[in-house]
């Protein structure tokens, strides 16, 4: 008998989150899956992308505003640079950037 974990791929996790959203259990699921520090890091990451996409502040200003290291901002910036314009536009729309 071969032991294999049920969830082996990122897409399976995304499907799990989608099912939890459809059944209105996403808050419970994400709170259980993520530690307090991970949730804080996710909030920071969303704000990093939002500020980078808005383009009003320098990376140093974003770092100071969010209380995260400049390397964290740079990683977010590099991630954005690897995305196509359409993906950036979709993210900006999700984040309510005008």
Largest sheet geometry: none
Helix content: over 70%
Roughly how many Å apart are the termini?
55 Å
- C-alpha Rg (nearest Å): 16 Å
Low-confidence stretches: none
Strands, total number: 0
Question: Quaternary status of these chains?
Answer: single chain
3D shape? elongated
Determine the number of helices (DSSP H or I, runs of at least 4 residues). Answer: 6
Look at the helices and sheets and give the structural class.
mainly alpha
Order of helices and strands: HHHHHH
- Beta fraction: under 5%
* Mean of residue pLDDT values: 94
Write the layout of secondary structure elements.
Elements: H1 10-22, H2 26-33, H3 36-54, H4 59-66, H5 70-81, H6 85-94
Walk me through what this model shows.
The chain has 98 residues and is an all-alpha fold. 71% of the residues lie in helices and 0% in strands. The protein is elongated, with a radius of gyration of 16 Å. The N and C termini lie far apart (55 Å). The model has no long low-confidence stretch (mean pLDDT 94).
Task: Give short descriptive properties of this protein.
mainly alpha, 98 residues
Task: Describe the structure concisely for a colleague.
This protein is mainly alpha-helical and 98 residues long.
């Amino acid at each position: 008998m071969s032991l294999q974990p049920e969830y082996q791929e990122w897409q399976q996790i995304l499907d799990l989150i989608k099912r939890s959203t459809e059944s209105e259990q996403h808050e419970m699921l994400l709170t259980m899956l993520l530690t307090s520090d991970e949730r804080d890091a996710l909030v920071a990451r969303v704000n990093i992308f939002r500020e980078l996409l808005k383009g009003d502040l320098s990376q140093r200003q974003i770092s100071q505003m969010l209380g995260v290291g400049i390397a964290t901002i740079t990683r977010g910036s590099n991630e954005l640079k690897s995305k196509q314009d359409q993906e950036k536009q979709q993210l900006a729309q999700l984040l309510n950037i005008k």
